[in-house]
Design brief:
Length: 81
């Protein structure tokens, strides 16, 4: 069965594995049990990051140009001149 592992839990697992955050703090912040944490960690290590990361509609510009939201680039005809 396919189960999506949330981004917040993945970040928490990474922080725990690097020793940056205690298990008690993670369990408190995510409001999950210790058993759930270990089950999710096991699932993630066995399956890997299999979620397809969608960052918008394929083939469409999200409005971000040059790292700034809403910035517009010059049309090709003007930039070639």
């Amino acid at each position: 069965m396919y189960r999506k592992i949330g981004r917040d839990i993945k970040i928490a697992i990474n922080l725990y594995e690097r020793g940056r955050l205690s298990l008690a703090n993670i369990l408190n912040c995510l409001e999950i049990s210790e058993r759930t944490f270990w089950c999710i960690r096991k699932l993630w290590t066995e399956t890997g990051d299999v979620v397809c990361h969608n960052h918008g509609i394929p083939g469409r510009n999200s409005g971000r140009v040059g790292g700034r939201l809403g910035a517009r680039s010059k049309p090709h005809s003007e930039s070639a001149a």
